[in-house]
Request: fold
Amino acid sequence: MKNIRYIFLVAAITLLKINPSIYAQDYVVKTVVIDAGHGGKDPGTHGKYTNEKDIALKVALKVGQYIEEHIEGVKVIYTRKTDVFVELMDRAKIANDNNADLFISIHCNALGKSTVKGTETYVMAVKNTDRNFEVAKRENSVILLEDNYEENYQGLDLEKPESYILFSLTQSAYQASSILFADKVEEQLGKRAGRKSLGVKQSSLYVLWNTAMPSALIEIGYLTNPGEEKELNDEKIQDYIASAIFRAFRDYKTEVESLN
Ligand SMILES: [Zn+2]
Reply:
């Protein structure tokens, strides 16, 4: 009897070894890349007294800290932890090289009109509306500061929406997941952080283009709105914004893993 049991056990183990799909592991969100927009010689946009790169970094570090403190088994990788310049292409490369499961890019918005305020979360798009194209143009323009711009971004004309359409192919496979996460971000930014949510939008943002995973770019507020500029400098409000993004990540992870 013992022998028969032993034979069955050996057979079962052998079967598992030759057919890994039998015990294929469920999908788990285990690596997240947090990307603080801009940095170093690229200050990003600005308000009266604030540079985008500084607020983005503060919030990005807090988001990572919350995830590390509250969710076990998730590896947090930052594209930058200090005030340094990182090329857009390299930001996506960091995420791809680390097989990240989610890419979160954190930015601040700007507009000529100082009355506009609120948060917007972007996923990659095929088509650009004029308004969203302005965001893409501004966020992508950092490319011009990169040394090897012409080599790396062949044929890209920042002024022409049609040259951005090529961008969307890699990301299209992940768009549903990206939107799932982006929706949660906007919901939490309203609920948890008391921000005015302007919703989930689509635009051709270069930093998202090359990422081979779900990704979103969060504009956490308008530095060109004096009230919002003041709020974005408030450490407590930065904490709430980071906490909202953390909660969106936590809920996203729970939801996609429940589909296993
Ligand atoms: Zn930006």
Q: What stands out?
A: The first strand starts at residue 31 and ends at 36. Residues 12-23 have pLDDT under 50 and may be disordered. The CA atoms of residues 37 and 107 lie 5 Å apart. DSSP finds ten helices and six strands in the chain.
